Amino acid sequence: MKIVEYSRSLQWVGDLRCNQCNGLTPAWRSSGMSQCFPHFYCDTCSNVIHRASDQRLVWSDKSRSILEQITNTLPKCSCGGQFAANCGPNCKHCHAEIAIVRDAVEYLHNPNMIVIDGACTYSDEREPYMVRIVE
Ligand SMILES: [Zn+2]
Ligand SMILES: [Zn+2]
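# zinc ion complex -> structure
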């Protein structure tokens, strides 16, 4: 798989703090201008999917029924898990979920896609790639 490296010095690279173990997980976050919405995390690993076809559905609206319509069509992740609403990436130390999705309907319009070090992003417009945070 293609690997995209982001330097730690970039503005959009930081650390997510885990509520369970207090450990830090390096992550890249897309800017608000990236329009990476909606995006959904795997329920098992930290991979994330962002599809233009979903964006057309939520562009001018967001609701529980649109969310259900989208989640019904979300594919399985390469790890065997399932992309789903209400899931977040996992701490790289203790693997607890980092709860970044508080309200799945509101989250439909969140353009800031967080991809942790080593996670893969999937799309209906381009090849998947893995994010690596480098020093
Ligand atoms: Zn997965
Ligand atoms: Zn942890």
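# post-check
The mean pLDDT is 96.
The chain is about 15% helix and 30% strand.
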